[in-house]
């Protein structure tokens, strides 16, 4: 299981590097530009990832303190496997199908500040710390519910996979926004 931990940490660090490489130096105007009102800006994509990561901490902290109770639906392996596959397929970076996010993870609609990338990189460090502090939990069959819905359950390992893969999906989305912006005079 240490290999999985190294894989998640490496994935977060690689994502951090890619976000910094592609979006460092964008001014407030370019961070907030949207091709249309239904699409998110680069800044909103980044803000969404910060909110998503932070939403997982309360469950992980409860598990680490021994206060977490396995969700009822988490006791049904078929459902756990079903939801894991469903979510992982939906957030696949190359999946062209658009999915609506849960309200808890909606990005801020107001103007995103230029320091959003720095906030994201700080959050990435916190995410790595959370992964590392959970190393003794990996492989123990822990099932959690999604921070967005207590009816959506998956293994702790799948949650970590989701967090890393989800970042890559939004990296691609933000890159497309930046490409669209470059096409405008």
How would you describe the overall organization of this protein?
The protein is mainly α and 185 residues long. A two-stranded antiparallel sheet has the order 1-2. It has a single domain (2-183), classed as dinb family like domain (Four Helix Bundle (Hemerythrin (Met), subunit A)), CATH 1.20.120. It starts with a helix and ends with a helix. The longest helix is centred in the C-terminal third of the chain and has 28 residues, at 156-183. It is 60% helix and 6% strand. The chain is globular, with a radius of gyration of 17 Å. It has helices at residues 2-23, 28-32, 42-65, 77-90, 116-133, 156-183, and strands at 143-146, 149-155.
Can you name the CATH architecture? Answer: Up-down Bundle
Encode the helix/strand succession as letters. Answer: HHHHHEEH
Provide the gyration radius in Å.
17 Å
> What is the chains' assembly state?
single chain
Question: In percent terms, what proportion of residues is strand?
Answer: 5-15%
CATH fold-level label: Four Helix Bundle (Hemerythrin (Met), subunit A)
> What is the count of structural domains?
1
Q: Uncertain spans, ≥5 residues at pLDDT below 50?
A: none
For the terminal residues, how far apart are their CA atoms? 50 Å
Counting helices, strands and paired strands, the structural category is mainly alpha
CATH class: Mainly Alpha
Largest sheet entry: 2 strands, antiparallel
Numbering strands along the chain, what is their spatial order in the largest sheet? 1-2
Overall geometric form? globular
Q: What is the fourth-level CATH superfamily?
A: dinb family like domain
